[in-house]
Amino acid sequence: MDSFLARYKGLFVLLAVVLAQMIGLATQMRRPDYLSRADGHNVRIVRGWAAYTIVPIEKLLWRTGQTVRGTWHGYIDLRHVRQHDKDLQYQIDQLRLQAAGTAEDARQGQRLQHLLGFKQAYVGKTVAAQVIGTGGGDRSHILVLNKGSKDGIAPDMAVITPDGIVGKIRDVYPDSSQLLLMNDSSSGVGVILTNVRSRGVLRGTSSGAVQIGTLLPDDRIKPGETVVTSGGDRVFPRGLSVGTVRSVSLDPEHQPYTSILIQPAANLDRLEEVLVITDVAQQLTLAQTADSDADPSARKASEIVAERLPGLHTETVQDGMKPPPDPAKKDAAATTTVKATPTLHRDHYSPGTVPNAAEMKPGAKHNTDQATGAPN
Amino acid sequence: MPRHFTTRRELEQHHFYPAATIGAPLLALFLSAYLPKLFPVSTIVDWPLIVVVYFYIARRNPLSGTLTGTLTGLLQDTLSNGYIGVNGIAKSVIGYVGASIGLKLDVDNILTRTILNFAFSLLHSLILFVIGYVLLASHGPGMLWTHELIRAVVNCIVALPVFLLLDLARSDI
To answer: How confident is the model at residue B168 (pLDDT cuts 50, 70, 90)?
Structure first.
């Protein structure tokens, strides 16, 4: 027996190790929230240890690279800088002029949206973060950022670039955080197709592609159509660019739904710096609303909109004269009970011809003819 | 001081400096996390797999191979957003198989190393797929064989110089 155990010692150890890990996997499958990918407390602690170990090394390498790059670009590689500076200054002057006009348009647009009652959320405050590492391997689409809870970052915050959305924050540590990219199979984004106005859920696939798989076939959905966030996931503000439709095909595994592949607007493979949305402000806060009410231009806009709305009655009021009272309006205000006109020839169906049911006795004969006077 | 061996197995088991035994897998884990930031295409290379395959076949000890593979796989899982234990199971199985096969082959031959890397890379992908499909019930689009074949070929190409470097870390040469 001892020789048998000694001979297959390695195999027994392998079986024990695999069994222990399978039990560990089964334990992790019991997530705190059903269908959620949030880790349990113990798993978070283990991942935290790994992050505390590897992030300082990644930060050191990143800082070294930044220093070398900065030294080269700032002190050594300075050819044609003066001419470049002059060109840029000219561009800045031109852009300032454009920005002044754009700002005025934006203010007017916000006022009009407020008047139309939109409750659109805007990006309130962002924190810029650098990508300093990855999750390792192509089966895990996460990135490590150099900003953490000390910088105001919290789980489930949206992460964007100027090109479009990137993903959301997963785990947060004091000095670093994990960014779950939108092409990971565990991520989901509420989106809307801008032309068709269809809403769907964007998900990553195991191959790293991004697709919408919750829509029924629609001939109007064409490649090249723009996709933006819908705001329905309560993570991403509405209207942020997501990407464009790359292809539309029937999903063979989930009939009758379609598989709409999306080309992300942001280059997910080449992310250097991202913006974490730490505060999503409603379009107009109370203070802004008060400012808007006090703004004469806003009142003017509301008057303009009111004038353009079609009315049911057009009343012309002459100076110093009241309009004549409308008899129909007066009657409608005075009487609330509708009375039927009396019948010319009463019958069984005329009101009052049949006695009240409470006064009737079982078996008794009721002569309605006398009451109505109708012939037999 | 010359080493004395009593069996052929002891003669063929290679020994390493402790720093190399611990440092090489950790360096491989770090490379797998950091290099994709600089070169996104490098996500296809499984650095921890390459390093632990080297140690499996060089040590030729199934017990040691299993435990080394388990620890490396578990550490790799902690860096990702997947379940902890997926890579642990895959690499512990490969560790055991690799060390068992290493006893019967001339693992210093370049051709043998290439074939073993290719086979273990494919086996690793297959085990990961089976774990995902059976244990985790993740019914995705199935195994992407072309992608996994490319991964195996790339791992082979990368593994050859890495193996030569790791040969220098042996304490018995």
So the answer is: confident
How many angstroms separate the CA atoms of B73 and A213, rounded?
33
Q: What is the ipTM of this complex?
A: 0.76
Asked if residues B171 and B15 have their Cβ atoms less than 8 Å apart, the reply is yes
Residue ranges of A 17-36 with Cβ closer than 8 A to chain B: 17-18, 21-22, 24-26, 28-29
Q: In sequence order, what are the beta bridge partners of A178? A: A144
Residue in B79, B135, B141 closest to A136 by CB: B79
DSSP states of B3-53 as a string? Answer: ---SSHHHHH---B-HHHHHHHHHHHHHHHHHHHHH-GGGGG--HHHHHHH
Q: Is the CB of residue A13 less than 8 Å away from at least one CB of chain B? A: yes
Range of the domain at B16: 12-167
* Exposure string for B45-80, b = 16+ CB within 10 A, e = fewer: bbbbbbbbbbbbbbbbbbbbbbbbbbbbbbbbbbbb
Q: ω into residue A325 within 30 of 0, thus cis? A: no
Q: Which residue has the higher pLDDT, A3 or B96?
A: B96
**In terms of CA atoms, which chain B residue is nearest residue A180?**
B81
Q: Which residue has the higher pLDDT, A228 or A370?
A: A228
The tokens describing A13, both together, are 């150890």
pLDDT in tens, A39-73: 666 677 777 777 777 788 888 888 888 888 888 87
Say yes or no for a CB contact (<8 Å) between A50 and B78.
Answer: yes
Give the whole-angstrom CA distance, residue B87 versus residue B49. Answer: 10
CA distance A189 to A232: 8
Q: Is A50 in the B-facing interface, judged by CB distances under 8 Å?
A: yes
Taking an 8 Å Cβ-Cβ cutoff, which residues of chain B contact chain A? 29-30, 32-34, 36-37, 40, 43-44, 46, 61-63, 66-67, 70, 74-76, 78-86, 88-89, 92-93, 96, 99-100, 128, 131, 135-136, 138, 140-141, 144, 147
Taking contacts as CB-CB distances below 8 angstroms, the residues of chain A near B99 are: 10
Which of the residue ranges A1-5, A99-103, A260-264, B130-134 would you say has the lowest mean pLDDT? A1-5
Domain presence at residue B130: yes
Query: Residue B1: inside a domain, yes or no?
Result: no
* Per-residue H/E/C for A339-363: CCCCCCCCCCCCCCCCCCHHHCCCC
> What values do phi and psi take at A322, rounded to 5?
-85, 150
Would you say the C-alpha torsion A131, A135, A137, A140 has a positive or negative sign? negative
Residue A148 · residue A164 · CB < 8 Å: no
CA dist B75 and A320 (Å) reads 88
DSSP notation for A175-190 = S-EEEEETTSTT-EEE
pLDDT at A169: 92
Mean per-residue pLDDT, A337-344: 54
B17: its two tokens: 């400096």
Beta strands at A142-145 and A273-282: parallel, antiparallel or unpaired: unpaired
For residue B25, the Cα-to-chain-centroid distance in whole angstroms is 9
Phi (first) and psi of residue A79, to 5 degrees: -70, 140
Q: How many domains does chain B have?
A: 1
